[in-house]
Design goal:
The protein is an alpha+beta fold. Helices cover about 50% and strands about 10% of the residues. It is elongated and about 70 Å long.
């Protein structure tokens, strides 16, 4: 049984042993009865989960360092022209419902995975985000377009263009 909690750390428990992979090169193996492997796994899982969470929090904080804190409406008015401000505000509110970080210092050029560390933004959350955008703005986002939406700015531009094309 393999249990993964991020791409760099995992633990494998099998009959007779436990293997913990730390980073990309460190491997620890114990030849133990299965119940000892389970007893080792549970604290190790929580330890590495806490360490990974702190690493992500520090990376997010470093990325956001020095940026102004803006509310939803302030964000839209600060970074977008008047015709896209309300769209940006609504999209940021929707995105905040699907991610576990504070977006008050987000920048429109932030990339979802690289900058906002949304590699945990699994496929189901991505689908839910796209569905909620489609419902809110009464548009369709095909899979081919969704793959290209890698930044907040690209999402705002796509939605604004889709709404402009839909308008009579």
């Amino acid at each position: 049984m393999k249990i993964a909690w991020n791409s760099k750390r995992w633990l494998l428990i099998s009959s007779g042993g436990a293997v913990i992979v730390l980073g990309e090169a460190t491997v620890v193996y114990w030849s133990l009865p299965w119940y000892w492997a389970v007893a080792i796994f549970i604290p190790a899982f929580f330890f590495f989960w806490i360490v990974a969470s702190k690493d992500e929090d520090e990376k997010i904080e470093a990325h956001f360092n020095g940026r102004p804190v803006l509310g939803e409406e302030e964000f839209g008015k600060h970074y977008f022209p008047a015709n896209r401000s309300l769209i940006a505000t609504k999209i940021r509110i929707i995105l905040a419902n699907h991610v576990g970080i504070d977006l008050s210092r987000m920048n429109p050029s932030d990339r979802f995975i690289e900058d906002l560390l949304m590699d945990d933004f699994d496929s189901m959350a991505t689908v839910d985000f796209a569905v909620e955008l489609e419902k809110e703005f009464q548009i369709k986002i095909p899979d081919s377009a969704a793959e290209k939406l890698t930044t907040f700015q690209s999402v705002v531009d796509y939605v604004a263009d889709a709404l402009a094309a839909k308008a009579p």
